[in-house]
Amino acid sequence: MAITLFTMARRALTYLVLFMLVILTKNSFSQDPAFSQFYANPLYLNPALAGSAYAPRLILNYRNQWPKLDNNFVTYNASYDQYIPNISSSFGVLFNTDRAGGDLLTTTSFSGIYSYSLPVSRQSYLNFGLQASYYQKKLNWDALQFGDEIDPVRGFIYRSSEPQPANTSLSYVDFSAGLAYSYADLFFAGIAVNHLTQPNESWYGDNSSNLDMKITLHAGGIIDLEQRARGRRATEAATLSPNILYQQQGNFKQLNVGVYFNKYPFVVGGWFRHNIENADAFIFLLGFQYDSFSIGYSYDVTVSKLKDASGGAHELSLRFQFPDNRLFSSRGKNRGPMPCPQF
Protein backbone atom coordinates (compact mmCIF):
# COMPACT_ATOMS: atom_id res chain seq x y z
CA MET A 1 0.00 0.00 0.00
CA ALA A 2 2.84 2.38 0.81
CA ILE A 3 4.34 1.81 -2.63
CA THR A 4 0.97 2.33 -4.33
CA LEU A 5 0.32 5.51 -2.38
CA PHE A 6 3.76 6.83 -3.20
CA THR A 7 3.22 6.11 -6.90
CA MET A 8 -0.13 7.90 -6.87
CA ALA A 9 1.30 10.89 -5.04
CA ARG A 10 4.21 11.13 -7.44
CA ARG A 11 1.88 10.95 -10.44
CA ALA A 12 -0.36 13.61 -8.96
CA LEU A 13 2.61 15.83 -8.24
CA THR A 14 3.82 15.44 -11.84
CA TYR A 15 0.47 16.58 -13.19
CA LEU A 16 0.23 19.39 -10.69
CA VAL A 17 3.67 20.79 -11.49
CA LEU A 18 3.01 20.60 -15.22
CA PHE A 19 -0.38 22.19 -14.73
CA MET A 20 0.81 24.98 -12.47
CA LEU A 21 4.09 25.88 -14.14
CA VAL A 22 3.33 25.40 -17.81
CA ILE A 23 -0.37 25.95 -18.30
CA LEU A 24 -2.28 28.03 -15.80
CA THR A 25 -0.03 30.18 -13.67
CA LYS A 26 -0.42 33.86 -14.32
CA ASN A 27 3.31 34.43 -14.69
CA SER A 28 4.00 31.42 -16.92
CA PHE A 29 5.05 31.52 -20.55
CA SER A 30 4.86 28.90 -23.26
CA GLN A 31 7.90 27.48 -24.97
CA ASP A 32 7.86 26.14 -28.52
CA PRO A 33 8.95 22.55 -29.17
CA ALA A 34 12.61 22.33 -30.18
CA PHE A 35 14.13 19.95 -32.74
CA SER A 36 17.70 18.67 -32.54
CA GLN A 37 17.86 18.19 -36.32
CA PHE A 38 16.98 21.83 -36.89
CA TYR A 39 18.13 21.99 -40.54
CA ALA A 40 16.05 18.87 -41.27
CA ASN A 41 13.05 21.04 -40.36
CA PRO A 42 13.93 24.25 -42.25
CA LEU A 43 10.48 25.87 -42.44
CA TYR A 44 10.04 25.41 -38.69
CA LEU A 45 13.49 26.91 -38.07
CA ASN A 46 13.11 29.97 -40.30
CA PRO A 47 10.36 30.88 -42.82
CA ALA A 48 13.05 32.47 -45.02
CA LEU A 49 14.37 28.95 -45.73
CA ALA A 50 11.23 28.08 -47.69
CA GLY A 51 12.38 27.12 -51.19
CA SER A 52 16.04 26.88 -50.14
CA ALA A 53 16.39 23.57 -52.00
CA TYR A 54 14.87 25.21 -55.12
CA ALA A 55 13.41 21.81 -56.04
CA PRO A 56 10.06 20.78 -54.52
CA ARG A 57 10.51 18.88 -51.26
CA LEU A 58 8.44 17.11 -48.63
CA ILE A 59 9.84 16.73 -45.10
CA LEU A 60 8.52 14.67 -42.18
CA ASN A 61 9.81 14.92 -38.60
CA TYR A 62 9.16 13.05 -35.36
CA ARG A 63 10.53 13.77 -31.87
CA ASN A 64 10.01 11.81 -28.65
CA GLN A 65 11.43 13.75 -25.71
CA TRP A 66 12.07 12.16 -22.31
CA PRO A 67 10.53 8.75 -23.15
CA LYS A 68 11.20 7.34 -19.65
CA LEU A 69 8.63 9.68 -18.15
CA ASP A 70 5.00 8.56 -17.98
CA ASN A 71 3.92 11.86 -19.48
CA ASN A 72 6.54 12.75 -22.06
CA PHE A 73 6.55 15.18 -24.99
CA VAL A 74 5.90 13.94 -28.54
CA THR A 75 5.99 16.21 -31.61
CA TYR A 76 5.06 15.52 -35.23
CA ASN A 77 5.88 17.84 -38.10
CA ALA A 78 5.31 17.88 -41.87
CA SER A 79 6.19 20.51 -44.47
CA TYR A 80 6.21 21.08 -48.22
CA ASP A 81 7.90 23.93 -50.10
CA GLN A 82 8.80 24.89 -53.65
CA TYR A 83 10.71 27.65 -55.41
CA ILE A 84 9.19 29.39 -58.48
CA PRO A 85 12.01 31.01 -60.52
CA ASN A 86 9.81 33.27 -62.69
CA ILE A 87 8.83 35.33 -59.66
CA SER A 88 11.94 34.62 -57.50
CA SER A 89 9.55 33.40 -54.81
CA SER A 90 8.87 30.32 -52.75
CA PHE A 91 5.74 28.98 -51.12
CA GLY A 92 5.45 26.47 -48.32
CA VAL A 93 3.04 24.87 -45.89
CA LEU A 94 3.89 23.61 -42.42
CA PHE A 95 1.89 21.36 -40.10
CA ASN A 96 2.89 20.73 -36.49
CA THR A 97 1.28 18.91 -33.58
CA ASP A 98 2.75 18.63 -30.08
CA ARG A 99 1.47 16.46 -27.23
CA ALA A 100 2.74 17.53 -23.80
CA GLY A 101 2.23 15.36 -20.75
CA GLY A 102 0.84 12.47 -22.76
CA ASP A 103 -2.51 13.76 -24.00
CA LEU A 104 -2.79 16.40 -21.30
CA LEU A 105 -2.11 19.37 -23.58
CA THR A 106 -2.22 19.14 -27.38
CA THR A 107 -1.10 22.00 -29.61
CA THR A 108 -1.77 21.87 -33.35
CA SER A 109 -0.74 24.49 -35.89
CA PHE A 110 -0.97 25.01 -39.64
CA SER A 111 1.13 27.63 -41.43
CA GLY A 112 1.37 29.18 -44.86
CA ILE A 113 4.78 30.61 -45.80
CA TYR A 114 6.00 32.96 -48.52
CA SER A 115 9.64 33.88 -49.17
CA TYR A 116 11.33 36.10 -51.74
CA SER A 117 14.90 35.60 -53.00
CA LEU A 118 16.95 38.71 -53.77
CA PRO A 119 20.36 38.42 -55.48
CA VAL A 120 22.94 40.61 -53.71
CA SER A 121 25.80 39.67 -56.01
CA ARG A 122 26.63 36.89 -58.42
CA GLN A 123 27.17 34.40 -55.59
CA SER A 124 25.20 35.77 -52.65
CA TYR A 125 21.47 35.91 -51.98
CA LEU A 126 19.08 37.24 -49.37
CA ASN A 127 15.81 35.46 -48.65
CA PHE A 128 12.93 37.23 -46.88
CA GLY A 129 10.20 35.06 -45.36
CA LEU A 130 6.75 35.69 -43.93
CA GLN A 131 4.60 33.15 -42.11
CA ALA A 132 0.94 33.16 -41.07
CA SER A 133 -0.17 30.42 -38.66
CA TYR A 134 -3.37 29.14 -37.10
CA TYR A 135 -2.99 27.53 -33.66
CA GLN A 136 -5.37 25.38 -31.65
CA LYS A 137 -4.70 24.21 -28.09
CA LYS A 138 -6.74 21.59 -26.24
CA LEU A 139 -6.51 20.83 -22.53
CA ASN A 140 -7.64 17.40 -21.31
CA TRP A 141 -8.90 18.51 -17.91
CA ASP A 142 -10.28 15.06 -17.03
CA ALA A 143 -6.74 13.62 -17.22
CA LEU A 144 -5.43 16.01 -14.56
CA GLN A 145 -4.93 14.66 -11.05
CA PHE A 146 -4.15 16.79 -7.99
CA GLY A 147 -2.82 16.10 -4.52
CA ASP A 148 -6.09 17.06 -2.81
CA GLU A 149 -7.87 14.18 -4.60
CA ILE A 150 -5.87 11.49 -2.76
CA ASP A 151 -7.17 9.49 0.17
CA PRO A 152 -4.29 7.77 2.06
CA VAL A 153 -6.08 4.42 1.87
CA ARG A 154 -8.49 4.48 -1.08
CA GLY A 155 -6.47 6.55 -3.55
CA PHE A 156 -8.04 9.13 -5.90
CA ILE A 157 -11.58 9.51 -4.58
CA TYR A 158 -12.02 13.23 -3.84
CA ARG A 159 -12.97 16.10 -6.11
CA SER A 160 -10.20 18.65 -6.55
CA SER A 161 -10.73 22.25 -5.48
CA GLU A 162 -8.77 23.52 -8.50
CA PRO A 163 -11.06 25.79 -10.58
CA GLN A 164 -11.79 24.40 -14.04
CA PRO A 165 -11.64 26.89 -16.92
CA ALA A 166 -14.88 27.54 -18.77
CA ASN A 167 -13.28 26.60 -22.08
CA THR A 168 -10.64 23.86 -22.46
CA SER A 169 -9.92 24.72 -26.08
CA LEU A 170 -8.52 27.93 -27.53
CA SER A 171 -7.34 29.09 -30.95
CA TYR A 172 -5.59 32.10 -32.42
CA VAL A 173 -3.77 33.44 -35.50
CA ASP A 174 -0.06 34.17 -35.29
CA PHE A 175 2.63 35.70 -37.54
CA SER A 176 6.38 35.20 -37.98
CA ALA A 177 9.16 36.56 -40.21
CA GLY A 178 12.70 35.60 -41.14
CA LEU A 179 15.79 36.53 -43.11
CA ALA A 180 18.43 34.19 -44.55
CA TYR A 181 21.71 34.90 -46.34
CA SER A 182 23.89 32.57 -48.38
CA TYR A 183 27.25 33.03 -50.09
CA ALA A 184 28.03 30.56 -52.87
CA ASP A 185 28.15 27.06 -51.36
CA LEU A 186 30.36 28.16 -48.47
CA PHE A 187 28.47 30.20 -45.88
CA PHE A 188 24.90 30.70 -44.62
CA ALA A 189 23.22 32.60 -41.81
CA GLY A 190 19.73 33.60 -40.75
CA ILE A 191 17.47 35.23 -38.19
CA ALA A 192 13.83 34.46 -37.46
CA VAL A 193 11.29 36.03 -35.13
CA ASN A 194 8.25 33.91 -34.29
CA HIS A 195 5.03 35.04 -32.56
CA LEU A 196 5.31 38.68 -33.61
CA THR A 197 1.84 39.45 -32.25
CA GLN A 198 2.44 37.60 -28.93
CA PRO A 199 -1.07 36.05 -28.88
CA ASN A 200 -2.91 35.46 -25.62
CA GLU A 201 -2.94 31.83 -24.39
CA SER A 202 -4.86 32.23 -21.14
CA TRP A 203 -7.46 29.57 -20.38
CA TYR A 204 -9.37 31.99 -18.17
CA GLY A 205 -9.94 34.78 -20.69
CA ASP A 206 -7.59 37.38 -19.18
CA ASN A 207 -4.38 38.76 -20.70
CA SER A 208 -1.98 37.12 -18.27
CA SER A 209 -0.50 34.44 -20.55
CA ASN A 210 0.80 35.99 -23.74
CA LEU A 211 3.00 33.80 -25.91
CA ASP A 212 6.50 35.27 -25.89
CA MET A 213 8.31 36.06 -29.13
CA LYS A 214 10.94 33.50 -30.09
CA ILE A 215 14.16 34.83 -31.63
CA THR A 216 16.39 32.43 -33.57
CA LEU A 217 19.90 33.13 -34.87
CA HIS A 218 21.69 30.47 -36.91
CA ALA A 219 24.87 30.37 -38.97
CA GLY A 220 27.32 27.92 -40.43
CA GLY A 221 29.70 27.10 -43.21
CA ILE A 222 30.89 24.21 -45.38
CA ILE A 223 34.60 23.34 -45.48
CA ASP A 224 35.97 21.19 -48.30
CA LEU A 225 38.14 18.27 -47.24
CA GLU A 226 38.87 17.28 -50.83
CA GLN A 227 40.08 19.36 -53.75
CA ARG A 228 37.41 20.64 -56.12
CA ALA A 229 37.37 19.82 -59.81
CA ARG A 230 36.94 22.84 -62.09
CA GLY A 231 35.82 24.91 -59.15
CA ARG A 232 32.90 22.60 -58.32
CA ARG A 233 32.38 20.45 -55.25
CA ALA A 234 31.66 16.85 -56.19
CA THR A 235 28.63 15.18 -54.65
CA GLU A 236 30.84 12.47 -53.17
CA ALA A 237 33.39 14.93 -51.72
CA ALA A 238 33.97 14.91 -47.97
CA THR A 239 33.05 18.11 -46.13
CA LEU A 240 32.83 19.54 -42.62
CA SER A 241 30.07 21.95 -41.65
CA PRO A 242 30.44 23.77 -38.30
CA ASN A 243 27.19 25.33 -37.06
CA ILE A 244 25.81 27.50 -34.29
CA LEU A 245 22.21 28.09 -33.23
CA TYR A 246 20.92 30.51 -30.59
CA GLN A 247 17.29 30.75 -29.49
CA GLN A 248 15.57 32.95 -26.93
CA GLN A 249 11.93 32.88 -25.84
CA GLY A 250 10.98 34.85 -22.76
CA ASN A 251 13.45 33.94 -20.02
CA PHE A 252 14.48 30.75 -21.83
CA LYS A 253 17.81 30.94 -23.71
CA GLN A 254 19.52 28.11 -25.55
CA LEU A 255 22.77 27.70 -27.48
CA ASN A 256 23.64 24.83 -29.82
CA VAL A 257 27.15 24.35 -31.25
CA GLY A 258 28.24 21.43 -33.37
CA VAL A 259 29.54 20.06 -36.63
CA TYR A 260 28.42 17.79 -39.48
CA PHE A 261 30.77 15.46 -41.34
CA ASN A 262 29.52 14.51 -44.79
CA LYS A 263 30.88 11.73 -46.99
CA TYR A 264 28.20 10.77 -49.48
CA PRO A 265 25.91 8.98 -48.86
CA PHE A 266 26.47 9.22 -45.08
CA VAL A 267 26.36 12.13 -42.63
CA VAL A 268 27.38 12.07 -38.98
CA GLY A 269 26.99 14.98 -36.61
CA GLY A 270 27.47 16.01 -33.01
CA TRP A 271 26.31 19.04 -31.01
CA PHE A 272 26.30 20.35 -27.49
CA ARG A 273 23.13 22.10 -26.31
CA HIS A 274 23.38 24.50 -23.39
CA ASN A 275 20.49 26.33 -21.75
CA ILE A 276 22.77 29.16 -20.59
CA GLU A 277 22.12 28.51 -16.87
CA ASN A 278 22.90 24.80 -17.18
CA ALA A 279 24.13 22.18 -19.64
CA ASP A 280 21.31 20.28 -21.34
CA ALA A 281 22.46 17.54 -23.72
CA PHE A 282 24.93 16.09 -26.17
CA ILE A 283 23.32 15.29 -29.52
CA PHE A 284 24.50 12.59 -31.93
CA LEU A 285 23.25 12.18 -35.51
CA LEU A 286 23.54 9.51 -38.19
CA GLY A 287 22.09 10.30 -41.60
CA PHE A 288 21.83 8.61 -44.97
CA GLN A 289 21.12 10.41 -48.23
CA TYR A 290 20.77 8.96 -51.69
CA ASP A 291 19.63 10.88 -54.72
CA SER A 292 16.38 12.64 -53.73
CA PHE A 293 15.85 10.80 -50.43
CA SER A 294 17.40 11.26 -47.00
CA ILE A 295 16.76 9.87 -43.54
CA GLY A 296 18.29 10.99 -40.25
CA TYR A 297 18.22 9.69 -36.69
CA SER A 298 19.49 11.63 -33.69
CA TYR A 299 19.63 10.92 -29.98
CA ASP A 300 19.93 13.47 -27.17
CA VAL A 301 22.08 12.33 -24.26
CA THR A 302 20.74 14.37 -21.35
CA VAL A 303 23.41 15.75 -19.01
CA SER A 304 21.18 17.98 -16.86
CA LYS A 305 19.64 16.92 -13.54
CA LEU A 306 17.01 14.96 -15.52
CA LYS A 307 19.62 12.60 -17.02
CA ASP A 308 18.69 9.57 -14.87
CA ALA A 309 14.94 9.95 -15.28
CA SER A 310 14.35 11.35 -18.76
CA GLY A 311 15.70 8.79 -21.21
CA GLY A 312 17.05 11.52 -23.50
CA ALA A 313 15.22 12.16 -26.75
CA HIS A 314 14.78 10.32 -30.05
CA GLU A 315 14.30 12.17 -33.32
CA LEU A 316 13.69 10.98 -36.87
CA SER A 317 13.58 12.97 -40.11
CA LEU A 318 12.62 11.98 -43.67
CA ARG A 319 13.08 14.11 -46.79
CA PHE A 320 11.78 13.53 -50.30
CA GLN A 321 13.05 15.94 -52.96
CA PHE A 322 11.16 15.85 -56.23
CA PRO A 323 12.67 16.39 -59.70
CA ASP A 324 13.18 20.05 -60.52
CA ASN A 325 11.58 20.21 -63.96
CA ARG A 326 11.24 24.02 -63.96
CA LEU A 327 7.51 23.65 -64.52
CA PHE A 328 6.93 27.25 -63.50
CA SER A 329 9.86 28.76 -65.40
CA SER A 330 10.15 29.68 -69.07
CA ARG A 331 13.65 31.07 -68.62
CA GLY A 332 15.28 27.82 -67.54
CA LYS A 333 17.16 29.29 -64.60
CA ASN A 334 19.70 26.86 -63.19
CA ARG A 335 20.54 27.74 -59.63
CA GLY A 336 21.84 25.49 -56.90
CA PRO A 337 20.33 25.18 -53.43
CA MET A 338 21.37 27.23 -50.42
CA PRO A 339 24.33 25.54 -48.71
CA CYS A 340 22.42 24.68 -45.50
CA PRO A 341 22.86 21.09 -44.25
CA GLN A 342 19.95 18.69 -44.69
CA PHE A 343 19.92 17.49 -41.05
Features:
single chain; 343 residues; mainly beta; Porin; 14-stranded antiparallel beta barrel; two-stranded antiparallel sheet; 3 helices; 17 strands; globular
**CATH third-level topology:** Porin
Radius of gyration from the alpha-carbon trace, in angstroms: 22 Å
Instruction: Look at the structure and give the mean pLDDT.
Output: 85
| Total count of strands | 17
Topology as H/E string? Answer: HHEEEEEEEEEEEEEEEEHE
Share of residues in helices = under 10%
Our count of helices gives 3
Q: Please give the order of strands in the largest beta sheet.
A: 1-2-3-4-5-8-9-10-12-13-14-15-16-17
Coarse morphology: globular
Oligomer: single chain
CATH class: Mainly Beta
Overall domain count: 1
Helix and strand composition category: mainly beta
Q: What are the segments in which pLDDT stays under 50 over at least 5 consecutive residues?
A: 12-29, 327-332
CATH superfamily: monomeric porin ompg
Q: How far apart are the termini?
A: 49 Å
Largest sheet descriptor: 14 strands, antiparallel, barrel
CATH architecture: Beta Barrel
What layout of secondary structure does this protein have?
Elements: H1 2-24, H2 42-45, E1 57-65, E2 73-84, E3 89-100, E4 105-119, E5 124-139, E6 150-151, E7 155-156, E8 169-183, E9 187-194, E10 214-221, E11 223-224, E12 239-249, E13 252-263, E14 266-274, E15 279-290, E16 293-302, H3 307-310, E17 313-321
Antiparallel strand pairs: 1-2, 1-17, 2-3, 3-4, 4-5, 5-8, 6-7, 8-9, 9-10, 10-12, 11-12, 12-13, 13-14, 14-15, 15-16, 16-17
